[in-house]
Amino acid sequence: MMSIDREQVYPIGWTAFKEQVEAGNIRSLTKTESTVQGELVQKVPIMLENGTSPEVQRFEIVLLAEDPHFPEWVHEHNPDAFLKGDTPKTSWLSVIVTYYLPFLLILVLWLFFIRQMQGGSNKAFSFGKSKAKLINMDKPTITFQDVAGCDEAKVELEEIIEFLRHPKKFQRLGGRIPKGALLVGAPGTGKTLLARAVAGEASVPFFSMSGSDFVEM
Predict the structure, then answer these.
(1) Is 9-84 CATH 3.40.190.10?
(2) What is the rounded CA–CA span in Å between residue 64 and residue 33?
(3) Please, where in the chain does CATH 3.30.720.210 lie?
(4) Which has the higher per-residue pLDDT, 169 or 56?
(5) Which range among 37-46, 57-66, 201-210 shows the weakest confidence by mean pLDDT?
(6) Share of the chain above pLDDT 90, in %
(7) Secondary-structure class of domain 133-214 per CATH
């Protein structure tokens, strides 16, 4: 039966480790976040916390604080020592990615939401704004004489025409102009022409507006 004798790892103090580093007796070091394990070139007796002084080949120390110059200090006295887990030098790119990129993302998101809110405010202020188009800047020339038929509708619209022609006469009597008139009929039966004729008879401008524009109202 074959057995492999593994060298025991002894926990040593910082003073003993410093003496071995400055003596050039370090063969290799493996650094972790809080400890350093290493191997000496030659075994030496080292006083441990329990009072014994065994021949130490492999050891372990606890790092009390992070020292960026630790690898340089070891290599200065032990140029042939192998160091594993050296703290890499921080590049400017890693600093930007780690510290500044999150703030930039937050800033971009904040600006995006601000623009969205401003756009929403503009839409809110434009809600209900008339999309009507002025057909003729001058008074329309179409009158009831240009509309064939629709006699009953013409009679009903005469009151609106009279309101548009002489609004002050009705206002003195406490009357108010009707809000509108609903013309019902199949496409091509002359509803728009009749509306333009009302504007022409009353000598007022005519505005056109699509029915889909009333959806938001």
Answers:
(1) no
(2) 10
(3) 9-84
(4) 56
(5) 201-210
(6) 2
(7) alpha beta
